[in-house]
């Protein structure tokens, strides 16, 4: 998900300087009247780890009903007697997170909350930047509200402020490709939080335009690392039967961050120097993320993978993995059961690793299963960006004005309402993705996107006397996007890549997302002038139909499958 700066939620880090410049602002309000700090002060500072598929295996070779019952009872009472790994030929219900399977599928919800919450804060801070930047750009360029002598920004400078985090995210994606597998998911997210903190503080305290842009770039690098590390860590530490829900819930946090950014912006928009608070408010949230991630354990699966790669001692990392697994799953399992699960997972990783010929370098991404995964994951995040999200929300102001929402205060209120609607529809996807599956949500959502785009084209061509058509199409687009491309693209990206190239594959997918976002950013204004709104929506409607065909033909269903099953059954 990416972001558009404006009065309305979006998924592209684009902005319209002209639209921002035209937005009216209220009279300045003294900060002291509200009893808060002065403008110069800042606020206080997808892998999935799993045991291999397993099945009940009666070890007593007896015959008759009584013997079968005895075997079943024995298996139930002793987990070691009822599991075996794929290497031993076992079959089982799917499992995903560490410890999800060998001794049953029990897990403690209380032990899942924190390993999800703190990585998800990385997504919330990404979304917050989306929402806050819209109001910050309005405040920053106002002679009355900016509180600076350099408020008269050119369209290029304003575009750099709005899109600076996008360019930083591109750099962060490249950085993640090189160092993420070395650092591990936990340290990658701690680093992302540190960059969030430094970027927010530098931006909030910036005495001039140059330092403002430096702060935006630092924050953007944090976005690039967080959007790579968060889905991986969540997937590694979540049971497979709720893996889709938790990774999709991260998208809900992004939307919640957008809404928070809009709310903070609406509170600070008429305060002198309010843009400093809008940008700086991210720092205390990032501090919470940093402390939380620092106190979480490393991924057990990453520890075992490093041992298999020969980068660490097998015995030492097995011990660390057991400790991490105990922390992640709670203490209701015995050390022996945890050790068995780690042994099973280690065998699974060794088997998958042995099937791949060499280290996952850049060229291996374009061969065999890795290439198929890259086409699926990269295709989804590419279509996510080029199916018109920036364009639809760029025209949201004019669409709503025709329906009677003309004043700036009305627009601000409507932007919050649209944010709440996005939150609601994302919640639908989050809580249905593991029931309905990935493909039905994608197909239905993209179909809705195409219908909404063609309705908008018809509105600008022949139905302009029926504004309710445009408003309905706008809401249909927002809702359809939030149940399909919004959460499902990142979920699929975290699941689809093979073991050895998973970290680098997700890095390339994130890079594709932000790169296509930048392309849309630069191409939109010329297309707008050359084609006009009706033809733009026809173009994006056609692209949406193409993306629908792509999903139907290329994107598999991964619901309920372990990562190894996805690799062996869907990619081979």
From TrEMBL:
Annotated Major facilitator superfamily (MFS) profile domain residues: 115-559
Protein name per its UniProtKB record: Major facilitator superfamily (MFS) profile domain-containing protein
Ribonucleoprotein among keywords: no
Record keywords, A-Z: Membrane, Transmembrane, Transmembrane helix, Transport
One function term, GO molecular function aspect: transmembrane transporter activity
UniProt record similarity statement: Belongs to the major facilitator superfamily. Sugar transporter (TC 2.A.1.1) family.
Subcellular localization, as worded in the UniProt entry: Membrane
Bilayer topology: Multi-pass membrane protein
Xref: SUPFAM superfamilies: MFS general substrate transporter (SSF103473)
Regions that span the bilayer: 112-130, 150-177, 189-207, 213-235, 247-265, 277-296, 414-433, 440-460, 466-493, 505-524, 530-553
GO cellular component assignments: cytoplasm; membrane
Biological process per Gene Ontology, one example term: D-glucose transmembrane transport
Tree of life domain: Eukaryota
């Amino acid at each position: 998900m990416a972001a558009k700066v404006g009065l309305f939620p979006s998924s592209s880090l684009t902005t319209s300087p002209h639209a921002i410049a035209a937005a009216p602002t209220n009279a300045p309000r003294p900060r002291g009247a509200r009893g808060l700090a002065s403008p110069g002060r800042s606020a206080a500072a997808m892998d999935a780890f799993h045991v291999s598929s397993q099945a009940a295996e009666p070890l007593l070779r007896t015959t008759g009903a009584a013997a079968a019952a005895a075997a079943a009872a024995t298996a139930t009472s002793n987990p070691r007697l009822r599991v075996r790994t794929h290497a031993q030929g076992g079959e089982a219900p799917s499992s995903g997170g560490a410890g999800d399977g060998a001794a049953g599928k029990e897990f403690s919800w209380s032990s899942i909350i924190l390993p999800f919450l703190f990585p998800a804060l990385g997504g919330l801070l990404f979304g917050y930047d989306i929402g806050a930047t819209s109001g910050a750009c309005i405040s920053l360029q106002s002679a009355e509200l900016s509180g600076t002598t350099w408020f008269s920004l050119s369209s290029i400078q304003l575009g750099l402020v709005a899109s600076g985090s996008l360019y930083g995210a591109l750099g962060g994606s490249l950085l993640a490709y090189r160092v993420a597998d070395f650092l591990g998911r936990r340290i990658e997210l701690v680093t992302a939080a540190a960059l969030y903190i430094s970027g927010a503080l530098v931006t909030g305290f910036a005495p001039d335009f140059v330092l403002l842009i430096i702060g935006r770039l630092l924050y953007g690098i944090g976005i690039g690392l967080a959007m790579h590390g968060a889905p991986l860590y969540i997937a590694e530490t979540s049971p497979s039967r709720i893996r889709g829900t938790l990774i999709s819930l991260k998208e809900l946090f992004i939307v919640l961050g957008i809404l928070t950014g809009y709310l903070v912006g609406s509170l600070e928009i008429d305060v002198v120097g309010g843009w400093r608070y809008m940008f700086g408010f991210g720092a205390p949230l990032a501090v919470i993320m940093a402390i939380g991630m620092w106190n979480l354990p490393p991924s057990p699966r990453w520890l075992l993978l490093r041992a298999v790669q020969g980068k660490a001692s097998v015995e030492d990392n097995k011990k660390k993995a057991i400790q991490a697994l105990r922390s992640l799953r709670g203490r209701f399992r015995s050390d022996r059961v945890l050790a068995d699960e780690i042994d099973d997972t280690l065998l699974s990783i060794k088997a998958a690793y042995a099937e791949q010929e060499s280290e996952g370098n850049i060229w291996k991404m374009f061969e065999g299963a890795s290439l198929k995964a890259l086409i699926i994951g990269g295709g989804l995040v590419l279509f996510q960006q080029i199916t018109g999200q920036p364009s639809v929300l760029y025209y949201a102001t004019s669409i709503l004005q025709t329906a009677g929402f003309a004043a700036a205060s009305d627009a601000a209120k409507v932007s919050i309402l649209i944010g709440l609607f996005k939150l609601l529809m994302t919640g639908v996807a989050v809580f249905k993705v593991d029931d309905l599956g990935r493909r039905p949500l994608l197909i239905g959502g993209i179909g809705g996107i195409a219908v909404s785009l063609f309705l908008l084209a018809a509105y600008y061509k022949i139905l302009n006397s029926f504004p309710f058509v445009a408003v309905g199409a706008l809401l249909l687009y927002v809702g359809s996007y939030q149940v399909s491309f919004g959460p499902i693209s990142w979920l699929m990206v975290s699941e689809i890549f093979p073991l050895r190239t998973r970290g680098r594959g997700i890095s390339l997918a994130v890079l594709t997302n932000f790169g296509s976002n930048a392309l849309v950013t630069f191409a939109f204004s010329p297309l707008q002038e050359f084609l006009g709104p009706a033809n733009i929506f026809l173009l994006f409607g056609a692209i949406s139909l193409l993306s629908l065909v792509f999903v139907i033909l290329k994107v598999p269903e991964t619901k309920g499958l372990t990562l190894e099953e996805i690799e062996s059954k869907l990619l081979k």
